Amino acid sequence: MKNTIFTGAGIAIITPMNADGSINYDELGRIIDDQIANSTDAIIICGTTGESSTMTDEEHLECIRYAVEKTAGRVPVIAGTGSNDTRYAIELSKEAEAVGVDGLLLVTPYYNKTTQRGLIAHFTAIADAVNIPIILYNIPGRTGMNMDVATVAELAKHRNIAAIKEASGNISYAAKLIAECGDNIDVYSGNDDMVVPLMSLGGKGVISVASHVIPKQMHDMAQYCLDNNFAEAAKLQIEYLDLINDLFIEVNPIPVKEAMNMMGYAAGPCRMPLYEMSDEHKAKLRASLEVHGLIK
């Protein structure tokens, strides 16, 4: 059995931006501190929610370095270093390892995509190049391809491939994944609305967007599951389901950055092509935050 990187609720953290589109590192540090103070179990930096696809190489690595230094070992830091270019993913992964991350998050190749055999070759090449644990990231809604269960099972044999973030939204697929892979790979929910169902099957936690606004509640939800108290976990899942859904009313991370701005954080704008949230959706999101006592 491999070492588990983290259990519970890790945050897929936003990258706060100044008005001119530059990165607001001071606010990133504030958010990291607030998340840790509210029991978040891991920081996942430069993922989809962090708008890594719009970052320069220098920004990408600097955000990773900053998160490692700011977190200072209080919780694990996992860096998004995936790419549809295997050579680039290897280079970025090695650089992230060098600055001290605890693990890597590697999305399946997008746009050019590949075959299932190609996936095995791609992830194996990256895993061979580093000496830290890797979380595979299956999100077919964004990448246009799904990892077969047999592919994940084969990759799980690698010493450095420790987990998968499962964001297909298909609970049947998740069940088959856990049944086939057993203790060879940890499974995290990539969907905030499916934490309890996935963890009831043996998942280790969630890589969460909702943790930005309800960090303690997401931690508690996951911890209840880890403690086999699924009744209490289900109460939280249902109680916050409307808010979770509203955080995805437009393309992530548009709504969560808007929610953070409403809550008094300097999350700033998203980088284009992500665009400002519509007034109608802003009103709906604000109402949802008010209902849950997160803003007045």
What this model shows, in words?
The protein has 296 residues and is an alpha/beta fold. Helices cover 45% and strands 12% of the residues. The chain has 13 helices and eight strands. It has helices at 25-37, 57-71, 86-98, 116-129, 140-143, 149-155, 171-181, 195-200, 215-226, 230-239, 241-246, 254-262, 279-291, and strands at residues 8-12, 42-45, 77-80, 103-107, 134-138, 161-166, 186-189, 205-208. It has an eight-stranded parallel β-barrel, surrounded by five helices. Helix 3 packs parallel to helix 4, helix 6 packs parallel to helix 7 (171-181) and helix 12 (254-262) packs across helix 13 (279-291). The chain is globular and about 50 Å long. The termini are far apart. The relative contact order is 0.14.
Question: Which sheet architecture does the biggest sheet show?
Answer: 8 strands, parallel, barrel
Please give the alpha-carbon distance between the first and last residues: 47 Å
Widest beta sheet: strand line-up = 1-2-3-4-5-6-7-8
Pick out the low-confidence regions: none
Averaged pLDDT: 97
Which descriptor suits the 3D outline?
A: globular
Strand percentage = 5-15%
Secondary structure: helix percent: 40-55%
Please trace the helix and strand order, writing H or E for each element.
EHEHEHEHEHHEHEHEHHHHH
* Count of DSSP strands: 8
The Cα radius of gyration reads 18 Å
Count of DSSP-assigned helices: 13
